[in-house]
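Posting for a labmate who doesn't have an account.
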Amino acid sequence: MTTFSETQHTQKPLFIAIPIVLWLTFMVFAVIELYNYLHFGIPLGDKGEEIPLGGFIGIMILLSLVFAFFLFMVLRLQLKISISESGIYFEMPPFKKPATFKPEEIESAFVRKYYPIRQYGGWGWRGIKDKAYNVSGRWGIQIVLKNKKRILLGIQNHEDAARALESIGFNKQL
């Protein structure tokens, strides 16, 4: 019996850099606006719709907290997958609670190459009808349940995953 287990993290420089760059850009514009208000008396906001200083600072703090939360979620996101004789287990905290697909629920399961942007619109928790849970890469375990639902789980080590699926009687496309 071959088993397979893999944990993927989103801690890649691009996933970390994007929220930080967005936050820094926001802060630069906010500080420029605040400087113009304090030194030149230029009102905060549009003409006729000025924002009081306390409201402006409150908005800055709120948006900083939103960016911090977004960065925290990106850093916390991970995909855990394991294959054993009891089935295919996966979870994607903090978005998807643990789920196990038992062999008797699965019509077919196989390793395949996919294109995350073209087929699912990117990485993460994707899809309405056909679900995809992926963090990076182009390989995945395609699961077709007996109720015709389709789930794709992104993986990195596709050779070991294929061997584990074969050991529980899968890895054959229908």
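Reply:
Got it, the structure tokens are right above this. Residues 124 and 157 are 18 Å apart (CA to CA).
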